[in-house]
């Protein structure tokens, strides 16, 4: 087999210079850079490429070791040599989203006029803008059609946007624990997070990089609130209950008496070490604006009309952030559009984060779907 | 606990559903097929293998759907009573409902939707007019439990049982033409042109109907 060996197991950044990126907000970004990572080898026909889209606080390192943190990638349950998304068989691509803080162009990037980082001067971006940038990356890699685009949560939104806007380049699509529009409740939670960041005196109107200080407290609170929405009541109860943290009785104060408090504080504090507050504002905003039906006169089915893409939609029973009802709305629209769709609700008490965890039923479904899609694509 | 309407109504022969092959024989090669209540996907798999169809399934039980998708079939979780309205007009060549009609809330609405979605319908039902059923009721005065209807009345999922003649009467109401009918009795199949006779209504355990919009 003659094949192109491309950047295996390493990260790199591409400058997408061929075209300026015209954004939904009306602004234009020149010289957009995307940090991305690939695994495996692109075959001769260039027919084995899989694009993985990461979630809100994810990055371009789903598998292998993340060079920044020295920790395992965020989806090693599913991606790797011999795994379900087998990097011995597929050419797997993952890029840090536009607006992110993993090396792609975002609010921490320098402005073209040399006056320092954008901060809040960065234009507001959308999920469609993120996908436009990925689309340029796929051009750059010389790939015509992606065998599969998949992702959970905000990654799932990108999957849907790919299928709706560039369906001819998407052979199969796996949107997991996601929705075709961000719900009112989800916008509400994001707003709480953003206000926590904006209320931190160290935020300094988004120009915290000038002082070298960072809005750690605000971002940590944002993460703490968001983290609760990724879990479920049952999982919290099972894991923490009312257990006390390193003490035998409550202290009648505001220390972290309970294990759940200590756990959340830890989540918040470790998050600020790896994530940028401005990026958090921009990416949550992009999710809030996401509504595929609105772009098609309120008709979700119209977004997927004449789609040849094979879809596999998955949701989790205990996910209250992107509940199964959102997936059912999507599946009904795909059926109305005559699309080829499979839909599975996975029984799990782990909440929204279940898609990142060891969920054998999800893995069996994904594995079966990919195998049949690979046969249809001539990859088996 | 509800008992799966299929396993209780299908009549097993050497562990295989004998109506499946009969249905498969009546599906055009390479056509687009929707299987409503597709269970574990046995029929869709058979159709894909033998007929090369482009198949889709709808199934109520989560474990059924998960099995299907893990086997590479295009199946969604949903309810025949509520979800058929989301499928487009004439989206399929053939729409199949095997051993499921009697477990739906509104069988006539389900058939109406099926006729909207596809021109050709294949429907298989257990026959409540079978002589064993009639004798059971006559002599024992108890709700019948037979080879084709294995569950007791209190745990059966079959809430809308009918005889073969009841079914064809409903087809008349819905303007559905009975193209052909196969009756099954103790593992033996008989092919009938048009609708079942009174004798067939007495002798058959199951009926497989091929219907067309009149």
How would you describe the overall organization of this protein?
- The complex is a heterodimer of chains A (380) and B (214).
- In chain A, 34% of the residues lie in helices and 16% in strands.
- Chain A has helices at 127-140, 154-165, 184-199, 208-211, 216-230, 233-239, 259-274, 277-289, 300-303, 324-336, 360-376; strands at residues 4-5, 10-16, 21-22, 28-29, 32-39, 41-42, 49-52, 79-80, 85-86, 91-95, 148-152, 172-176, 310-316, 340-346.
- In chain A, strands 2-5-10-7-11-12-13-14 form an 8-stranded mixed beta sheet, sandwiched between helices. In chain A, strands 1-6 form a two-stranded antiparallel sheet. A two-stranded antiparallel sheet of chain A has the order 3-4.
- The longest helix of chain A has 17 residues, at 360-376.
- In chain B, the strands form 2 sheets. Chain B has an 8-stranded mixed beta sheet, with helices on both faces. In chain B, strands 1-2 form a two-stranded antiparallel ribbon.
- Chain B is built from 9 helices and 10 strands.
- Chain B has helices spanning 5-9, 18-24, 42-51, 62-70, 80-83, 107-117, 131-140, 164-173, 198-203, and strands at 12-13, 16-17, 32-36, 54-59, 75-77, 92-98, 118-126, 176-185, 188-193, 206-213.
- Chain B has 214 residues and is α/β, with parallel strands linked by helices.
- The longest helix of chain B has 11 residues, at 107-117.
- In chain B, helix 2 runs parallel beside helix 3.
- Chains A and B meet through strand 13, helix 10, strand 14 and helix 11 of A and helix 4 and strand 5 of B.
SSE topology sketch:
The complex is a heterodimer of chains A (380) and B (214).
Chain A: E1 4-5, E2 10-16, E3 21-22, E4 28-29, E5 32-39, E6 41-42, E7 49-52, E8 79-80, E9 85-86, E10 91-95, H1 127-140, E11 148-152, H2 154-165, E12 172-176, H3 184-199, H4 208-211, H5 216-230, H6 233-239, H7 259-274, H8 277-289, H9 300-303, E13 310-316, H10 324-336, E14 340-346, H11 360-376
Parallel strand pairs in A: 7-10, 7-11, 8-9, 11-12, 12-13, 13-14
Antiparallel strand pairs in A: 1-6, 2-5, 3-4, 5-10
Chain B: H1 5-9, E1 12-13, E2 16-17, H2 18-24, E3 32-36, H3 42-51, E4 54-59, H4 62-70, E5 75-77, H5 80-83, E6 92-98, H6 107-117, E7 118-126, H7 131-140, H8 164-173, E8 176-185, E9 188-193, H9 198-203, E10 206-213
Parallel strand pairs in B: 3-4, 3-6, 4-5, 6-7
Antiparallel strand pairs in B: 1-2, 7-10, 8-9, 8-10
